[in-house]
Structure formats: structure tokens, C-alpha cells
Amino acid sequence: MKLFVYNALECDPERCTAIRLEEDDKVEAFYQIRKIPMEVILLDPLTEKAFSPADEEIVEQHGLLAVDCSWKNIDSIGEIRTGRESRSLPYLVAANPTHYGRPTILSTVESLAAALCILGHREKAESLLEGFKWGHTFFELNEEPLEAYSKAEDSAEIVRIQEEFLPGEMT
Q1: Domain extents for the chain?
Q2: Which of 42, 62, 80, 162 could cysteine-pair with 90, CB 3.0–4.6 Å?
Q3: What PANTHER family does this protein's entry cite (predicted)?
């Protein structure tokens, strides 16, 4: 299963999870949008269709792409969306030190690990996060939703399951 990252080089290199994944040969990184394969599934927090186990065949064949850019600039990734299948991750809570405890604002490594868990590849997800001292915390904070999401059939079911985990003010 190929994991890709588009790195917009907008974050502190010392804290960048995408750079660490690339250095550990766990992802293939792209720094130019035109070089990114078109057939991948793009993890995109701004799209309406939820990532689900139904996406596994495409991910197995073509790969999964996360975007590493500042959350302040997330709406500027429009060019990457063009012609690609985009999916958003369901409700999860960040464990990374920058956004700890904040819902839906995951780091790149957390996003990829979450997607792998949803596809039923928990060991591979754990492998991605093993180099981060807070990695185990991501699983602790999200154990129940990740388990539930991995049992869903499709995007619509993910959205229904997500409702169980949303705090009252978000529903």
C-alpha cells in the first residue's frame, strides 16, 4: 500500500510529521503538485464524502495521499483536488502536541494512521506512529471511533457512526 504526502513546506521542519515519515522511508513525498499520481485517494478535510473501508481497493491499487500544509492555508489546496478522488476523515481527536485534544485537526501522520485503521490495517498505522512519543496517545484518544469506523461499509455509514462520537455542540 503506497502512502504519499504532498509537502507544501509550510511548517517547522523540526516538528513536521511528513518530513519524519519521509526520512524513515514510510511515505513518498512530493513537493510539486504536477508530480502527484492522479489515481490516488486524497485525504481532504474540506470534501463531503467520508473515507471508508469501501475505498480500500483504490488505495491498494493506487495509494493514499495526505497534504502537509498549514491549517491556516488548507483551503488553498484546490489545485491538488482537481481530477482526484477526495475523502474526508470522520471525527477524530488530535494527539499531536500542536493541536492536542482538538477535534478534526490532525497532523499528517495522524491522518494517514487514521485512514489505515479505517481500512483495517492497524499494525501499519501503529508502525507510522511508532516514531512519535505521542503516537500511542492518538490510539488511546480514538480507540472506540477507529474501531467503529473500520466496521463501516461505506461513506454514508461512516457519517452515521460519526454522530455517536460528536460532542453535543458539534451535532
Answers
A1: 3-170
A2: 162
A3: 18S RRNA AMINOCARBOXYPROPYLTRANSFERASE, RIBOSOME BIOGENESIS PROTEIN TSR3 HOMOLOG
